[in-house]
Amino acid sequence: MSIITKSIASADREARYLNPGELDAIRDFYESGYHRLSLAATLIENEQKIIDKASLRFWECCSDTPSNSGNRIYRSSCLRDQSWYIRLITYSIVVQDIEPLAKTGTIGVQEMYESLEIPLNNLVIAIHCLKEVALELFTLKDATEVAPYFDYLIHELTP
Less Cβ crowding at N or C end of the chain, within 10 Å? Predict the structure, then answer.
């Protein structure tokens, strides 16, 4: 839930106006909006490059994995999922909240990958690779803003 939604929900629950601290937080959220959009745009514009490079890193670490078995279905599913995670991360960056990742990025994922016989550790390694490659696109300051979203996924998906 974005800072705006959280602030309004809290104030409404307590039947009060937004307080000065909440108004300042909302103002800060709006003022940093262009920067968050810029971070998300960098990921969007470089999505394929990130996936290609991260996949190569992953397959170097985990050469014996279903996504590197020559089976096109496994490979395309792996690449699709990496794209999906980057997309969810861009949503989270824009709203400056993990909710998009928490709501759709981690729920049921363990069961899905287990049913496909893909080790969850492999997914975690793949997300690490995505993170490494993606963060190479940013300055150190910007990378520190983007990294927590990857870290959240890694933490939540670690078995």
Answer: C
